[in-house]
Task: structure prediction
Amino acid sequence: MPSKVIEKDIIRGVCKIDGFLPSLVDASVTGADFDKPLFGWVVDKSIEYYAKYNKHPTKKVLKRLVERDSELEEQEAKKYLRGIRSLYNRGPDSPHFSLCELQKFSRKKKLISYLENSAEKIEGNEDVDEVINFMTSSMMGLEALKQKEWKVVDWLDGFEDRQALRKFRKKHPELFRTFHFGIKELDAKMRRGMVIGDMGSIAAKTGRGKSIFTIQAGLQGLYQGFNVTHITTENELGQTEGRYDSRATGIPYEQIQMYDFGGSRKASLRQAQQTVDMLRNFVDTRLKIVKCIPNKTNIMTIIDILERLEKREGHKTDLLIVDSPELMIPLTQFKSDYRIQKATVYWELKSLLLERGIIGFVTSQLTRGSDDSMPTAEDMAEAYDKARLLDLMMVLIRTTKHFLSDEAMLWIVKARDFENDGQPITLHTDFSCMFMDV
Result:
């Protein structure tokens, strides 16, 4: 249907159908979306009136608003008065558009406006990067206008239903997918595990074992029946593949990377192949490793990767590992606030997990605090704005003493859905084989 026809029908709905204005508000339709100035004015004034009095303005009210509008020229005001009379004198009522149709109309109009503004900026010799940032933030705004599914419950009336679900979940845990790390003491603390939409993080200073911990998480996801997508911006693809090979087979990383299987080590070559063959036979899901360019990757890159894997290879991601968001860039640039800019990547990832029904696990950098003191969320770089949306935050500590004894201390510093006793977990480590467990 042509835009002009839709605009006329929407205006008829504004003038003649009670309850139509809230639909416009829900769809983010504004007067700026209309080509005809009169229509835009009527929509904006009607929405303002409804917000104040909770009812639609009548023809008489709109005419009075025209007379009181000091921004209208005399001739323009007379034209609006004639136009309002004709709007109320027109024939049949407008059909009641669905929310989806109104949203499409609004998004189409805003898209045209953004493209026209961007073209004007470029012709006006504005900086191309600034124009791209403007378009990116505008596109994010359009994306936010898509119809969303909202679920509302009545807390008191829903109590019995929640209790019944909890009882059923306890009796049949196998029917509810949760992710555990395969570390006995850690899994005992977080009995529920991580569920769809959760975002967890392992934070540590450089060289303490963050990336090795993600190998543990990725393999456990595979063993537990999750399709895992491991995105790395730090390590090279061959390094990440080699680490998985070493952890899964128990063969030292250096040996397997150098293909050092001569002499007495021939047995370990057979061991490696047997392990992989066994996994192929007994594991139905897959683990995909993707190398992204640091500081060139944003959330749209991640979305493109997930969609390509699903469409081309049938790999629908259940567990997403990102090592590390620190080297991603946000869609919206905040040049005046570096802290917010870095945190935005985490916010975008969290939204992605919720929208697509994925469990997420990421690495984070610690820049403050001491290996000899109890860590807190504030030890994370740009702490507050990143840590506040995490559902699970763990910190890995390795002092000189820990290095010498092949140990590490794992602290849970934030957990939304289980009680944290504040006690660290001692992990035994063998980084030659990418091993980290109690």
About this structure: DSSP finds 17 helices and nine strands in the chain. The first strand starts at residue 199 and ends at 204.
